[in-house]
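Help wanted!
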Amino acid sequence: MTTAIGKSLSRIDGRLKVTGQATYAAEFNQEGQAHAVIVGSTVGLGRIEAIDSAAVEKMPGVVAVISHLNAQRLAYNEHRGPIDPPAGERLHVLQGTEIRFFGEPVAIVVAETLDQAEHAANALKVTYSARQPQVDAHAGERVIPAVARRPGARAEADVARGDADKALETAAVKVEAEYVIARENHNPMEPHATIAAWNGDRLTLWSKSQFVANEQAEIAAIFGIPPENVQVNCPFIGGAFGTSLRTWPHVTLAALAARHVNRPVKLVLTRKQMFFATGHRPYTLQRIALGAQPDGKLISIAHEGAGETSRYEEFMEALTSVTSFMYSCPNVRTSYRLIPLDASTPTYMRGPGEASGIHALECAVDELAYKLQMDPIDLRRINEPQIDEGRQVPFSSRSMLKCYDLGAERFGWSRRTPEPGSMRDGRLLIGYGMANASYPCLFAPANARVRLLPDGTVEVEAAASDMGPGTYTSMSQVAAEYLGIPVERIRFSLGRSDFPATPPHGGSMTMASVGSAIRAACLDLQAKAAVLAAKGGGNAGLAGQSPEALEWRDGMLFVKGRSDRGVTYADLVSYGGESPLVGEGTAARDAETGQKYSMHSFGAVFAEVAIDPDVKTIKVRRALGAYGVGRVVNPKLATSQCIGGMIGGIGMAIMERTVLDRRNGRPINAHMADYLVPVNLDTPHIEAHFVDEEDTIVNPLGVKGLGEIALVGMSAAVSNAIHHATGRRVHELPIMIENLL
Amino acid sequence: MRPFEFQRAASESEAIAAAAAGARYLAGGTTLVDLMREEVETPEKIVDINRLPLNYIRATDEAIVIGALARMSEVAANQDVRRLQPLIPETLTEGASPQLRNVASIGGNLLQRVRCPYFRMLDAACNKRVPGSGCSAIDGLNAGHAILGSSEHCVATHPSDLAVSLVALGATLSLKGPRGERTIPVEELFRLPESTPHLEHTLEPGELIVEVHVPNGPYARKARYLKVRDRSSYEFALVSAAAALHVENGIIKEVRIAAGGVGTRPWRMNAVEQALVGKPAARASYEIAAAVSTEETRPLSHNGFKVKLLPATIVRALEMAGDVA
Ligand SMILES: Cc1cc2nc3c(=O)[nH]c(=O)nc-3n(C[C@H](O)[C@H](O)[C@H](O)COP(=O)(O)OP(=O)(O)OC[C@H]3O[C@@H](n4cnc5c(N)ncnc54)[C@H](O)[C@@H]3O)c2cc1C
Ligand code: SF4
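Answered by r_m:
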């Protein structure tokens, strides 16, 4: 039997990518296509008073200037995908005069060439009446999310067990702190891009998307056409980190423009425009209070969190949810609030919610360790829970202790001397820090199709995406594993809305959900093939056997335990005129499992920083994560996922922030030279390790998901390391030179 | 981008004539083309000078001479420069990125434009872009802005790293224009913003930077550049310092210090230099002298940290220079 799962295969699409042959959304140029450029509002709140397009319409190459004055009235039928905020209504573009945030699209200019369109867009005169926007989360009102206010709400804003406040009063040792985390933008390499082409009332979109099935449904709802009339294609994604989960206004604008000018239209956002209306990690404010006994046992945890949202939608994330199960503690209280601002709606960004929430919790736990004069890992061990105490159910698996052991050993944690400022390398101050990480094992119904071709190769299809984790490769491994044939014979295709529907490519649920669906489709195909063989298909050697008595080995069907009279896939396909042979698979998690178990990945992450004692430059020299994520389908890809995630965490810790000008809500650093992300020189030696973990509960593949968790915890580990090096607790992210002077 | 006329000059006189008639010189284009694409710069005519024979590096006993079209990466890799003027390669490689340095020229580097974000936003008030429109940075976000040499009209820092080191080293520029040739100290190339921030340099219309002369002073080999920033590469300086020391028997004979990231032009630290001459080349002297650097600083609402960072950077740069064997 081929064992494809667990092999460190290189990316199947690696060569295509490095040789420029992988085709991204903006590269599907269509015959006769025009170029569209969005004109964004230059006020942060108010309304459009006038748009003077006459002069611009006469500029060279200009095909159309589209604004609320002449845009098609769009249906905007109700549609709320699983990645859309649970309350509020999405932005309607070019349908009225109201301006809700800086950069909101107010017009599109369509021209023959991109240069002409850009030039004309710059020349378009728009007059506004402006009001003062409120973009300061600190000054904003905090509201209970609408979904939590509804009777019988699924999401709760306030969760409590015991009495955290009372317990805190009696606690021998206490820590209280407030944490501020800056807004971040995803900033993937590939910009958002859509090419739209209508053919009658049928629309084809080549569009950067992590969720083509939803993009299809959303655009159909917006234009009031049947979903079957919309085809969305996206074979490759040049990084996304969550920014391409939702279908943002530019997709609508591309389709609207294409219809308006009656030819295909290409629309690519500029880097600056990627800071306006394609989501961001929300600015968050958190307060944590911990109380412990002198022996370190936690007796109280209070965690209050609030995140920015827009005034028209309520974006929610799991900011405080981990706090209820991370540690054993009898008295826990968490609360979650939203702060509506005159800004565009935030969205999921890698490790959403958990990354920000765990940052606060894990920095506070480190502070507590210092107050108790205990090793931070020892403190965590003492408070390791046996079950999910928040829900009072067992974990499907939890390898936290193994992660501490493995991580501490590989990192060399024992070399750490606890006194802040006590470790040096020459003049440099050295700090070690660590933190816990966690992310839920999400799962959503998924479908897949497997097609056996006469030449013995297999086509696998699902409307999934590959934004970088290596979905093409890992899904091929799953199919190869369950069909028992070499990976080279599998051709996996994704990124088409007419493929079997899958959940969003986010939340680390692609392998769990789509992988399980592919497994099911393979088993379905094998069952069908066995029936065919039993009927006398192939070389007729298996005729008359019961299908259950047959098994697949090396791409052939045999009687179990025997090696003679094998039938190949190719033999079978030609039999009975049924060509090709198709297997269909669906995967869903039964509700009972979800109720009976708490399912999460866990990890322990470590960082070493070096800080210049004079000028305070912060350098992360080493980062390491030890994770328990269930079965690892491809260790090489998994490691590379983790390295990328940890780098994202380092960015969150010491560099990334989107800065808004309070006067008008303008992001002032909307530029890759000004929005800092780590460059190679900032990328230290990074290691990812996986502990052995078998979880038969999460899903048939036993995979818990990975990708999101790799970012989680790193910002806390770095912050704790900075404290260890300098004795300074900075409660704001990112921590920059100016914070340490 | 606005449509423009493009011309390629075959000789210096042709280039100068075109520029005198209103064309802008195009060297590597990493500043100019970038800003043209954003329509911050809107020249009607461009004269490409890349065919002029100004891409050279010459070493003599007295000086290193660098043609205006030498590329940043070429100068940084040049063996004579590395040997005689190690400060220059160190400074150049701390700037921009390898890709940019491969095309960016030395002349263009000195005339690169400010990185103030409002300067690049067509809808924001900016006296430098549109004289008289106001300055968005003074009451806005100004963490990256100047604490020295600012005016009520503009507070943007000069972004060039190289200029800081050239000012420290006392380099001069050879210029050629419609009215002939002249030589000026690099320091005199840059104007303070005062009430005319749109005028950044002292070149006359059509004047071409031909070459840079960097004298091989006794301090040139004991010289270091320290650029302090929040990431290790591909970022402009929060604060930087070029320090060059001539030490005899442990006593500072001569010293040159200039700072970047703090001034509206590269800032020579004369008072700090004076406080060091005759003192032991040791941290204690550096600390006392560096404290002088903040005397005339005028921080804005968000850049107060630079007042602390400036002396720390100078101290450290001096220490690094002192350590050079
Ligand atoms: C993302 C980014 C990051 C950067 N980071 C840094 C950094 O960290 N440190 C740093 O120092 N620089 C940095 N730079 C700036 C870069 O070094 C300059 O853009 C470059 O040196 C300009 O040279 P150029 O030949 O491309 O000039 P061009 O863009 O061709 O010209 C710039 C200006 O100089 C004029 N000019 C050019 N040559 C002459 C001449 N011989 N005589 C008269 N006028 C002339 C042009 O007319 C134009 O006005 C960065 C640039 C970018 C885009
Ligand atoms: S600081 Fe100077 S460049 Fe920046 S906005 Fe003010 S005037 Fe313009």
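OP: Thanks! One thing I noticed: Chain A has three domains: 32-131+189-239+244-275, 146-183+281-442+595-740, 444-588.
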